[in-house]
Amino acid sequence: MSEIEAIVASSDSFWEVGQYKRTVKRVEDGHKLCDELMKLIAERADIEKAYAKSLKAWAKKWNDSIGKGPEYGTMQASWMAFLHEADQRHDVQMSVRDKMMNEVYENVKKWQKEVYHKSVMGFKESKEFDELFKKAQKPWAKQYAKVDKAKKEYFLSCKNKKSAEIQENNAKSDQAVSQDQKAKLTDKVERLRKEVEANRQKYQHALDELNHVNPKYMEDMTDAFSRCQEFEEKRLCFSKETLTELSNVLNISADLRMPQIYRDLHSTIANADAGKDLKWWAKNNGTEMAMNWPQFEEYSEELKSITKKSKKGVGADAGDTVMLTSIQPASHDTRANDNWSTASRPNSEYRSVAAPVSASSYNPFDEDDEETPSNNGSNSHQQSRRSVSSQSKP
After folding, report:
1. pLDDT in tens, 355-381
2. Contact 322, 352 (CB under 8 A)
3. Which of 53-67, 278-292, 373-387 shows the lowest per-residue confidence on average (mean pLDDT)?
4. What's the rounded Cα separation, in Å, for the pair 179 and 33?
5. Largest Cα–Cα separation, the chain
6. Does the structure show a pLDDT above 50 at 314?
7. Interatomic CA distance for residues 343 and 347, integer angstroms
8. Whole-model pTM above 0.70?
9. CA distance 56 to 87
10. Do 14 and 92 touch, CB atoms closer than 8 A?
């Protein structure tokens, strides 16, 4: 270890030997701060992206809910306006995220690569600044080491002289000490006094030499420090520009889309009209709906074909159905009726299927079965139909 390396600084002053290293370390810290700034931007960009995705999911969820819910009319449109606002805000927040990563983040990354140059032993800039400070401090540090050594020698000689004087005083009052020993102590004190004076002069001379190189030392150190300051100033100015740009990106109030988004939202809410919604409800669900009120209808002889599906049961086939295919006038021969009744049944036994009677399938013959006609032809025709009906019953 050299004399310079062995020097222990008495304070944290920049001018002390080796205390310039904090300034040199700013290069490494600056590179690290660029990493931290990029990390900060990336995390905030993730927050913006997550917020945008949450807005999108929220809008989708409530779009389905409101669309299927009971709200209606202009008030439903007011509800939906907030979902439209969320969709638009999603686009705004995603554009914020993209600008943060594609512009701000990338600018920091590019600047860091251009300014800081890594080497095997650290950063090239750190090595250059450290060499500047060492060159400026080395002459002064050598002289300072001489001063420190002279100071220690002077302090030691003073300590030894003081100890010898105490021994001499004690010996004078001690009868057991011979005169020869007392004389030796007196000589020792005198010799140490001379040594103290010599070391004092040596120490003072070293200080004078140190003070002589102080101006040059301060000039060289100031020059090296100024170069470090200039380098750091670039980082500070760039950081300010970056943070300003970041604040502009985050300031969505400056986005021209934002005023229009909320103008549309407020306009939709302002257009909500209770009277219009109530009128719509009355027309579609209330007293203003159309109604097919019952009216008197004349009896009509026109008949429609009737098809009855059989009930599935034990012993019932798909073909066990009864179909009315034609109507014979009452004046026809009963044989014709018999032929009609036998021709219309595919099997020897029949099973009828009860079907609900509606207004559209109204059969006037269902009531004729209950009445007693006055002419014989009609009776024979009804008997023929009754025979078919009775055979078709289970």
Report:
1. 343 344 444 444 444 444 444 444 444
2. yes
3. 373-387
4. 76
5. 186
6. no
7. 10
8. no
9. 6
10. no
pLDDT band with cut points at 50, 70 and 90 for residue 346: very low
| CA distances in angstroms from 366 to 300, 327, 384, 387, listed in the order given | 14, 14, 15, 15
Strands 118-119 and 122-123: antiparallel
**For the chain, what is the HEC assignment?**
CCHHHHCCCCCCCCCCCCCCHHHHHHHHHHHHHHHHHHHHHHHHHHHHHHHHHHHHHHHHHHHHHHHHCCCCHHHHHHHHHHHHHHHHHHHHHHHHHHHHHHHHHHHHHHHHHHHCCEECCEEHHHHHHHHHHHHHHHHHHHHHHHHHHHHHHHHHHHHHHHHHHHHHHHHHCCCCCCHHHHHHHHHHHHHHHHHHHHHHHHHHHHHHHHHHHHHHHHHHHHHHHHHHHHHHHHHHHHHHHHHHHHHHHHCHHHCCHHHHHHHHHHHHHHCCCHHHHHHHHHHHHCCCCCCCCCCCCCCCCCCCCCCCCCCCCCCCCCCCCCCCCCCCCCCCCHHHHHHHHHHCCCCCCCCCCCCCCCHHHCCCHHHHCCCCCCCHHHHHHHHHHHHHHHHHCC
Structure tokens at 175: 């009868």
Of the two residues 182 and 231, the one the predictor is more confident about is: 231
